[in-house]
Amino acid sequence: MPPIVLVGAPVEAGAGRRGCLMGPDAYRTAGLKEALIQLGHSVSDLGNLKMAPVQDISHSNPVLKNLAEVTGWTRALHATAADLGVKPVFPVYMGGDHSIALGTVAGQASAAAAKGRPLFVLWLDAHSDFHSFETTESGNLHGTPLAFACGLPGFPDLLNGLPRHPVDPANVMILGARSIDPHERDLLLAHDVSVCDMRMIDESGVAALVKPFLERVRAADGLLHVSLDVDFLEPETAPAVGTTVPGGATFREAHLVMEMLHDSGLVTSLDLAELNPFLDDRGRTARLMVDLTGSLFGRRVFDRPTRSF
After folding, report:
1. 219-254: per-residue pLDDT in tens?
2. Burial of 161 (0-12, 13-18, 19+ CB in 10 A)
3. Which of 67, 108, 126, 270 is the most exposed place for a label (fewest CB within 10 A)?
4. CB neighbour list of residue 215: distance below 8 Å, 6 or more residues apart
């Protein structure tokens, strides 16, 4: 396993409520770095990024919120991800709301293109985040990053003139979805994105759904970016998120996904998105996310301390 690099992205401009900017420091307080070191990894923390300055950015959709700020963070994160993605390191982007993926996935895609390898994306989320800037009705830009990553039209120049390297929609799997707007549904169907909702998990189990996707990544010699949103999980298990949707993945299902990802050896970068410490219960969700990250990096059931969440 290459050295792990932690990157803080204190972003809340894409969400509908405040608090996610505290996410990176909550992961630090919950002991993310220490947990990964205990698993035998070399870990460094780059600290929190700063937003790039933005001038003259606009869009015809009047409901968009905080467009300049989200654009600034997208450019900063894209530059960081494009740089880290070509180095022999494993970046972990500590968010921040899910608009961080506008920059992280695009940057990792640029790095994959430089390596001549396809990028695959596993999107662990209650939402598909497949709105364009044209179709969003809420104006909350954390609902748009996967559409941007897949090269859909309807976005302004978020990358400041740099080339965009779209992810093939066929290389995306959304797991755990249970809240998809009609516009998103139409776009997902039109672009043939694989969407495994909670009914599919109930009927088939996560292992049967994730295994074929990982086999496709391996067959294509692909790089795999995992984007984990807190609301992938059942809200009673992980309450620290501003977009709770009942009926999410269980604690055990989430760990199984992470353990399978570790076993595959295919994951090359990770987002931890939408942790809002202001909504947490004594750090419960932050600790759970640290535990899930530990499972991705090799922690087994016998290694995990027993504690009450």
Report:
1. 999 999 999 999 999 999 999 998 889 999 999 999
2. exposed
3. 67
4. none
Alpha carbons 292 and 286: distance in angstroms, whole number: 10
Output the CA torsion 259→126→70→157 (10° steps). 90
pLDDT of residue 244: 81
**Taking Cα atoms as reference points, which of 264, 270, 255 lies closest to residue 225?**
270
Select which of 131, 142, 165, 225 is catalytic: 142
**Annotated catalytic, 98?**
yes
Determine what percent of the chain falls in helix, strand and coil, rounding each to the nearest 5.
Answer: 40, 15, 40
The residue ranges of the chain whose pLDDT is under 50 are none
Look up 229 and say whether it is catalytic.
yes
- The helix (H) or strand (E) run that includes residue 273 is strand 267-273
Q: Give the Cα separation of 71 and 59 in Å (integer).
A: 12
Phi, psi of 176 (to 5 degrees): 95, 10
Which position among 253, 274, 280, 291 bears the catalytic label?
274
Question: Domain 4-303 adopts which CATH fold?
Answer: Arginase; Chain A (3.40.800)
Q: Is 97 a catalytic residue?
A: no
Is 12 noted as a catalytic residue in this protein? no
| CA proximity to 12, closest of 3, 27, 23 | 23
**pLDDT at residue 150 in the model:** 97
Which value, in Å, is the radius of gyration of the alpha carbons in the chain?
A: 18
Distance CA 218, CA 245 (A): 32
Residues 141-196 pLDDT 10s: 999 999 999 999 989 999 999 999 999 999 999 999 999 999 999 999 999 999 99
Structure tokens at 189: 């169907």
Give residue 287's Cα distance to chain centre: 17
The predicted structure's pLDDT at residue 242: 87
In this predicted structure, what is the pLDDT of residue 304? Answer: 57
Backbone angles phi, psi at 8, to 5 degrees: -85, 130
